[in-house]
Each structure stands twice: as structure tokens, then as C-alpha cells.
Amino acid sequence: MSELFDAVDALIASRSPLPPPAERRRLRQAHGLTLDEVAAALQVRRATVGGWEAGKTEPRPPERDAYARMLKQLAQLYPAGAPVPPEDTAIPETPAVPAAPAPSAAEPAQARTAPAGPAAEPANTALRPAAPAAVPHPAVTSRPMLRRPAAKKAAPAGIPAGGADPRFENGPLAVVDVADGQVLAYCVGGLVLDVPAKSIPSLVDWTLREAKLGQPKLSGPGKDADPLIVLTEAALQRYGLPVTLTKEERLAGRIPEGHKVIKQLTRADWQLTKRGFGPWARIYRPAQGAERSCVQLCIPSWDALDTRHWADAGQLPPADLARLLGTYAARVMTPRGSTAVTGLELMTALHPPTRASEPDAMGKRHSEHNPGSLGKDPVDCAPCEAPDGHPLLADLPRFHQRTPAEVLVEEAYDWARPLTDAECLRPHLVGIDVNMAFAAGANGLTVGLGAPTHVKNPVFDPKLPGSWLVDLSHVDLSRVKVAKDKWAELDGELLPSPFTPKGERPTGPAWYATPTVAYAVELGYEARPIEAYVRHDNGRYLDAWYNRLRDAYLATMADLGVGVDLPPEEFLKAMDGYRQRDPQLAVVVSAVKATVKGGIGKLRERPRGEGWKPGQPWRALARPTWRPDIRAAVISRTRINMHRKIVKHAAFTGQYPVAILSDCAVYASDGPSPLDFLPYRDGKPLPGGFKLGVNPGLVKWEGTQSVLWGEGVREQFNAPELNLARYIKDGTVTDVDNGE
Fold first, then answer.
1. Residue 265: what are its φ and ψ, rounded to 5°?
2. CA-to-CA distance for 412 and 409, rounded, in angstroms?
3. 702 with 738: CB under 8 angstroms?
4. Cα distance between residue 319 and residue 304, in whole Å
5. Helices within 403-542 (DSSP H only)
6. pLDDT per residue over 326-340, tens digit each?
7. DSSP character at residue 57
8. Confidence band for 422, pLDDT divided at 50, 70 and 90
9. Is-contact 21 27, C-beta < 8 A?
């Protein structure tokens, strides 16, 4: 009989009456409880309680009965319509800029707690926001946002803590969505704001006047980051914008100039940048003195968040997307466009082109060049550094193919060779990948800041950045220096040349960046340049850029359980499945990596349609950051760093790579692990060789396949030198290179 009674009790508990979702939230907030506190009491996840309050899910036994009991007691303490106790009274804040005319009482902007659904709870605290409870006082109907300071908690790792800068206390960005007819702005830290704006122009006004969004400048003479507003599909519909772009609009990268929303902006005296209203639209008014009026829009359904780098971030619930982008913004910067655009913007943000001068005789300050920056005006590259179609090459015949003696070609490795008989007897092919290779290549690199100087018959100076025409065909890899006054005999036929991307030995004079020529000297050979374009105005422009991206990468990897200075065995274990520990944080890692690669690539951006013809200038040439010489120097140093490691490894172990693709090298091995061929002794790696670890420049395990797989693939495609590094990760042979 007792079993029957238990069954009846369970049946009653399964139908315990609950108030509507909004009332559940009101009761919790009225008592000053956070989602975390309620979740801990009921022994459920925070996101579960958020889902109950959002009406996305309903509690089930045994939690339902306890949840109903709590709400019943709270309802007795705080009946509907009763005023909030004095200690919970919300205090309107003073707007950072003059407020707009007071709205009607029907449009109060209120700070809320984010209603997170079941999928909104990340496994790692770096993306798990503290939920600041905020209860609006019933008598307050003005537009300024409301907050209970006593309930505000410290933001988790990666999310800027509210209040650090009162102008931007709600974080760098917000995801605007529509729920139950209400427009809401999901900010970092779990905060949700009511949005009274009924059009895009009024949304821009609200963002600048009341939302308190933005990010402080990264450098003394720099500028604060403009607020970023991410529009969901529901928000696009609410504001009269298409949910997706047509094929023609995608190709153009924007909606037509005659669109009604653009007309609304024009009538309200707002302007768009030259790229128009596209996936990353910038809406602004000309600056008035030091005051900027600019809002950046991001539209995921228009492919603003490239799935190659952001995975499915564009499909996340608004609160989760705000946390993900907020973590990236806190650790890198507020996104300004694609990861490539942001990588380039980060360089400028860290080294602004101008600064304020010392006061003159009248006590006034003026704008002057900021030392160490690229300045505010573009400079011409050297002819050898110019890509095909550049105006400097307009006099060349139309189909002229430039030789190595006419053009600088510094690119990443794409090299492979057939396996030797001894390598074919080994069972495994193991790939190792250099972490943040191009970031490591930028670290400590001296690059040109100004225009080049042309010099005939110069004496090579490894400390002087530039492009050098020199014959390095005499460098013999079978005998090279591996340390000061220490020579090594190697099998040069099994090594790629360090001087060409394809690993082919040069046959005569060619143009090289400084790190490449310096490496020839390091190997023990003379370099006598014929001519050069050198840059006497130079500096370590990318150091701060590297440091910020390195710190962002390492902090996020640490949140995923991969710390620095782990012993090699523990590092390999920590890396195993690290992406699954928190998929959202893993997306941040991918975005940081893409910011590095994209930023370097953007230094030599090519024409992008717009009716361009060879010999004509294109838009990117007007940027001070269009610097193909800096890109070449970084890639040169990255490739040389890889070659130096494989030479050290070969000299010490007698092992040679069978394939290299950019930052991935493949070796034949007796075992499936990198530890089966990397020469660790007492836990210490070969000095100057490959070392397992998470830091930029160290290596991780990329993948292992069998030697039979490698030989079979090459035979299948009738390609004896098919680059196996391209497919070592999972063994799937495609034409796609995701090149981490």
C-alpha cells in the first residue's frame, strides 16, 4: 500500500501548480535571489532555472514540487502589485550623455536577468555569466536603465566586469532579439535590457545614449571601441531588414542603397561607410571634437560570422552569443568585421597613427605622428613587393610572368617528398602542428614603419628590415651550422630548401625578406645582395599585437583545461578532446587563431571586385596598414622558424620530415604518438627543436595515420609527392585546406 501512496504523491507533485514564467522571475528577483542560488538549492543547473523562467521548459519531479513550494512562499511575501522592499529599490543611473526626450510610461528600459534556455549553460565558467538581479521599482517609468548594485556580481573570466568604466558598464556589445513581442538586448554577464527603439535609427540613438555599451581604448592615444549590436533574425524582421541576402546582395556585400532602412538612416542624418549596409555595417555621424557617434552592427544571418572560424556561433541563443562574443571582445577586442579585419584593426588600436602633442605657446595641443605606428598616410611598397596588377607594375606587358628576380615570394611551406625505404618500414605517420605559428613569427620581429629606400650593392644587415635581391643557390643543406662554430652533416635531399615555399633549391638571384637572408648566414653561408629596398624607419610594431593575441589564446586554452608548462604526457592528455569540454570556448580559440592569420593576410589585401582592372589602384591601397613587406617578413620568419627546428631535429636524431604544410610537419615513426619520435630526455626537449606545449611556437599533436594509408593515398591519386600533411588530421583526402 505504501508504494501506492508514493505513486499518488509523485503524481500530485508532477502537477504542482506554478505561476507564469514572468511571475517566477519576479518573485525570485523580489527576494534578491540569483539564478545560481536557486539552482544550488534545487540541485539543478543555472540554465535549467533560466529555462523555467523563460517558459522554454517546465520543471519535472522531484524538483517541480520543491520549486512550487519556494514560489508559493515568495508569493506570500511579495504579492503581485506590492512594492519591492526598500533595500531592493532600483536606482536610475545618470546617462553618460544627454538623454533623449523622456518616453512614455509604456516604454521603460529595464535591466533584466538573461532567460537562458537548456542549451545556454556552458560547461566552463569562463563563459558562464554571473546573473545580476535587477528589479525595476514600480514607480520608475523613465528610460534610463535600472540596477540593484547590491546584487551585482563579479563577471567570470573573459567577461569585462560591469562598472570598470561607467561609460561602458554594460559591456562591449549586445545581441538584440525579440521575445514575446518585446525587443531585448542581451549583454555580457547575463544582463538583459529592454530596448524601446522602433527603428534602426532609433536603435542607434538608444545604443549611444542609454545602453552604456563600448570598450575602453587599448592604447593611450587610441580611441574607445564603438558599441557592437548583433541583430538576430527576429530583430531583423522587427526593424524591416531582410533575414537573408539575395544572391546579388551577397555578391555586392550589402543591401541596395534604395532600401527603406537606409532611407530612414539618411533622414535621421546617419551615414554608412563605403562598404554600405552589409553584414558588418558601421553607422555614424561625423565626430564632434573628441566625441564619436558610431555603432557597429553584426548580422549573423547575413554570414557576418564565418563558419570556418566561428563554427555555429550565429545559431546560438542570444545570451550565449553575447557571452561568446563578449569573451572574444574582452580578450582580443570588440569585433570590427571578419576575424581578418579585426586582426588588422587590433594593430591600429594598439599603435594609433597619431597622438596629442605637447602644449604649444598658447597652451593648445595638436595632432602629431605617434612614434612606433604606421602613421595616418599610406606608403608605396617596393616594386618587387607589389602583387600582380599593382599600379607600380602598370608598364609591364599584360601577360608577363615575373621571375624570382623580379618579385618577392615569401609564402608558407607546401612541400612533400616520397618516403625512403627505411621510412616505409615504419608503421606510422605522425603529424605535429606549431601553435599560433604566425603569431610566434611576429613576436620580436623588427619590421619597416615607413617607405623603403632603394640601395645598390648593399652590405647585408640582419637587423635592417627590407627586401633583398641575392643569390642563395650556393647554400648546401648537406652541411650546415646548427650552432656557433658547430657544423652538421645532413642528407640535404631529404630536406626542403628554406628559401622557397615549395622547398625547391633556388637557381639564381631572387628577392627575399630579411629573415630569410639572415638564416642563410646563420647556416654558415655568405650573402652578397645585388640590390635592396630597406627601411631605416623600423621597429617591433607587432609585439603588442602578438602579446594580446597570445594572452587571449593561452587564457582560453587554460579555461579549457590546457595550461602552460605541462609535462609532455600531461599536455597530450589535456589536449585530447579539449574542444568538447566547452564548445563555445573552443570557438573563441578558433576565432583567435583566425584573427592572427587573417590579420597578417590582410596586410596584402588584393582587389575585391568593384570593377577593378589591372594597373588601377584598389581600395585597400589607401590604408596605412596595406603593407605587403610586413606580411612577407612575418611569413618568412615563420617558415624559417619551422626549418630551423627540422634541421636541429635531423642533426640530433637522423629523422627528416616527409611533408610540411604551413605549420604542420609529418614524420614517419615507430609509434603513434609524437613522443615516439621527439627526442625528450628526462622530460626535457631538444634545445632549439620541437617541444610539446600550448605556448605559441611549441607544437601539439595534429594526427596519426598509417604508412600504408599514406602510400595508398598517393597511389590512388597517382601523386608520389601528394602533401600528406594536408590530410594527416583525420585521414580524409579532399581538396580543402583548413590549415590551422
1. -65, -40
2. 10
3. no
4. 18
5. 421-424, 437-442, 514-522
6. 999 999 999 999 999
7. S
8. very high
9. no
Helices marked H in 270-417 = 307-310, 318-331, 339-350
Tell me the C-alpha to C-alpha distance, in Å, between residue 491 and each of 11, 461, 495, 579, 656: 79, 30, 7, 39, 9
Q: Is the pLDDT of residue 30 over 60?
A: yes
Specify whether the backbone of 206 is left (phi greater than 0), alpha (psi in -120 to 50) or beta: alpha
Q: Rounded CA gap, 215 and 206, in Å?
A: 17
Using N-to-C axis directions, what is the helix angle for 628-653 and 514-522, rounded to 10°? Answer: 20
Report the candidate in 219, 216, 239 with the shortest Cα–Cα distance to residue 229: 239
Q: How many CA atoms lie within 13 A of 400 on its CB side?
A: 16
**DSSP assignment letter at 71:** H
CA-only gyration radius of the chain, Å: 30
Please report which residue ranges of 55-199 form alpha helices under DSSP H.
Answer: 63-77
Mean pLDDT of 571-587: 96
CA distance 486 to 539: 32
Q: What single DSSP character describes residue 709?
A: H
**Residue 283 pLDDT > 80:** yes
Q: Give tens-digit pLDDT for 342-361.
A: 999 999 999 999 998 888 88
- Quickly count: other Cβ atoms within 10 Å of residue 502's Cβ: 12
Average confidence (pLDDT) over 16-21: 85
H helix runs in 167-313, sequence order: 200-209, 233-238, 247-252, 260-267, 307-310
